[in-house]
Amino acid sequence: MPSLLFCGPKMAACGMVISIWGVIMLAMLGIFFSAKSAVLIEDVPFTEEDILNDKNPPQAIYALYNRVGINCFIAAAIYVAVGAISLCQVRLNKRQEYMVT
């Protein structure tokens, strides 16, 4: 029977820790971008032309804030998936530890 185990116990534990950190950080960034935090204006990808050519510049900037917030939530979801895979690997490593071959 083929094994689904593809990483060791230390790498799986490291993946879980990094995933937990990534989910917390990116979820908080997503919340702050969705709330249009002024501190994060440097991370919003806009140019001078976006402001000068638009008749309603704040709405364009708010739309960019929302887009960046959604990207943060998508990245957090990817970290959740990586964390789930790491958790499965930790469990498979523990099960293999008790197997007698």
UniProtKB/TrEMBL annotation:
| Residues passing through the membrane, by range | 12-35, 68-88
- The source's domain of life comes to Eukaryota
What cellular component GO annotations does this protein have? membrane
Q: Which InterPro entries does the annotation name?
A: Ribonucl_Kappa, RNase_K
Q: Supply the alphabetized keyword list.
A: Membrane, Transmembrane, Transmembrane helix
Cell compartment(s), UniProt: Membrane
Which family does the similarity line name?
Belongs to the RNase K family.
Q: What is this protein called?
A: Ribonuclease, RNase K b
The species this protein was found in: Cyprinodon variegatus (Sheepshead minnow)
Q: What lineage does UniProt assign to this protein's organism? A: Eukaryota, Metazoa, Chordata, Craniata, Vertebrata
